């Protein structure tokens, strides 16, 4: 039994941030019912990396395990009535419609809280539900650019490099997951449901607690260097450096100690808290020149023996076979009825008494329509009539 066993989540979200948040709740044992259009959720039809799969593409597969699917036309009166019946027995309702859409569909917090006053309603948006940007699309890379974070690394005068993952979507998902858990805890204590609002712009902005405080409190300007320094608010050397074979990471060592190890005499007279800021480009360039003389393995061995923070630059092929990753059980493996054997990142929190697990892989659109409605008290004749009317859809495995 997962730690959230007994809770029901209605997941009306699309794309990444919402489904990822709902999947986290499912990983902890909640009964997550994915409410999607009769044609299937948007992410079913968009394959990141061109990984289309058999009947479920990899993008959808990765974000929708531990869920059941019901396919409903919410624009029809019959479909809307079905959803309201499900809301009566739900604990969490999660959606990331564009602002105003939930109200037009009649599934906004005010409407659903009348049906179920104890409902925890998580509403996710790109920029907030009011204000000048409510009509802007909340897309990950666009928000990365707005966040200011891109200009904390790289070379001055060059275009910034985006994060190598869907960073804003992932951070927003975790923020929504955290908000849902906190609101459920409040309900356990008081019996009250409530509206929980999360937006991508605030999520990625508040993630930069330390960096932005340095700017707003200490008034330190966000100034990039001529060299590709990894973060404007961390002293040199700090970044990825080429070696004789593979690149490695070096993270702000003591200059005197580091200089002795790499054979850079000029570092021996430098002060960490002065020169590593004022001579950042010089230090970076000299580090780059020195590290090109040996292999990555040679440098990493030397640095490990001398307590210098350093490490390899992995690709995914390296990551999945890393001994610590294998030891931690970071990835989970299971068999999916249409996609075969699946290996995918698991859940990062370990509970001693209520561990997370994969009970089911991502569903087909409407795979559980009949099962979900029968558990809500609908008989086969009523379900068949709704399917015939087009208000619902179901898919057989």
What does this structure look like?
The protein has 397 residues and is an alpha/beta fold. The chain has two domains: 266 residues, Rossmann fold, CATH 3.40.50.10540; 83 residues, no CATH class. The protein is 38% helix and 14% strand. It has 17 helices and twelve strands. It has a seven-stranded mixed sheet, with helices on both faces. A three-stranded antiparallel sheet has the order 7-8-9, covered by helices on one side. Strands 10-11 form a two-stranded antiparallel sheet. Strand 7 and strand 8 form a beta hairpin. The model has no long low-confidence stretch (mean pLDDT 96).
Shape: elongated
The computed structural class is: alpha/beta
Name given to the CATH homologous superfamily of the largest domain = Crotonobetainyl-coa:carnitine coa-transferase, domain 1
Cα gyration radius (Å): 25 Å
> How many β-strands, per DSSP?
12
Q: Biggest sheet: strands side by side, in what order?
A: 6-5-4-1-2-3-12
pLDDT < 50 stretches: none
Question: Total domains, how many?
Answer: 2
Query: On the 0-100 scale, what is the average pLDDT?
Result: 96
Q: Give the CATH topology of the largest domain.
A: Rossmann fold
Give the CATH level 1 class of the largest domain. Answer: Alpha Beta
The multimeric state of the shown protein is single chain
- String of helices and strands: EHEHEHEHHEHHEHHEEHHHHEHHEEHHE
Task: Give the termini distance in whole angstroms.
Answer: 26 Å
What percent of residues adopt helix (DSSP H or I)? 25-40%
Proper CATH architecture of the largest domain: 3-Layer(aba) Sandwich
**Distinct helical segment count:** 17
Strand content: 5-15%
Largest sheet: 7 strands, mixed
């Amino acid at each position: 039994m997962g730690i959230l066993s007994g809770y029901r989540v209605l997941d009306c979200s699309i794309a990444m941030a919402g489904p990822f948040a709902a999947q986290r709740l499912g990983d902890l044992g909640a009964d997550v019912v994915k409410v999607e259009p009769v044609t299937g959720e948007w992410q079913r039809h968009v394959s990141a990396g061109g990984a289309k799969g058999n009947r479920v593409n990899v993008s959808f597969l990765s974000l929708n395990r531990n869920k059941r699917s019901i396919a409903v036309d919410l624009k029809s009166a019959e479909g809307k009535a079905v959803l309201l019946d499900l809301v009566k027995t739900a604990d969490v309702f999660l959606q990331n419609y564009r602002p105003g859409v939930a109200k037009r569909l009649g599934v906004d917090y005010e409407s659903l809280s009348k049906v179920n006053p104890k409902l925890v309603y998580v509403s996710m948006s790109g920029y907030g539900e009011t204000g000048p940007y409510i009509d802007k699309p909340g897309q990950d890379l666009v928000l990365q650019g707005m966040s200011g974070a891109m200009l904390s690394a790289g070379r001055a005068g060059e275009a910034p490099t985006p994060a190598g993952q869907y960073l804003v979507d992932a951070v927003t998902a975790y923020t929504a997951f955290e908000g849902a858990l906190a609101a459920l805890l409040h309900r356990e204590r008081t019996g009250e449901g409530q509206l929980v609002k999360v937006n991508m712009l605030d999520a990625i902005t508040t993630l930069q607690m330390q960096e932005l405080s340095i700017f707003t409190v200490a008034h330190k300007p966000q100034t990039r260097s001529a060299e590709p320094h990894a973060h404007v608010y961390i002293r040199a050397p700090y970044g990825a450096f080429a070696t004789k074979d593979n690149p490695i990471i070096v993270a702000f060592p003591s200059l005197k100690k580091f200089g002795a190890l790499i054979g850079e005499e000029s570092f021996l007279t430098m002060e960490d808290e002065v020169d590593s800021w004022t001579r950042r480009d010089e230090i970076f360039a000299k580090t780059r020149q020195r590290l090109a003389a040996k292999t990555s393995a040679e440098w990493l061995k030397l640095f490990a023996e001398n307590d210098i923070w350093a490490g390899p630059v992995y690709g995914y092929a390296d990551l999945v076979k890393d001994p610590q990753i294998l030891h931690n059980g970071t990835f989970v493996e299971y068999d999916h009825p249409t996609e075969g054997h699946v290996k995918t990142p698991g859940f990062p929190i370990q509970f001693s008494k209520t561990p997370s697990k994969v009970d089911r892989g991502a569903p087909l659109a409407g795979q559980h329509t009949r099962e979900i409605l029968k558990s809500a008290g609908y008989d086969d004749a009523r379900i068949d009539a709704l399917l015939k009317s087009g208000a619902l859809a179901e898919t057989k495995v």
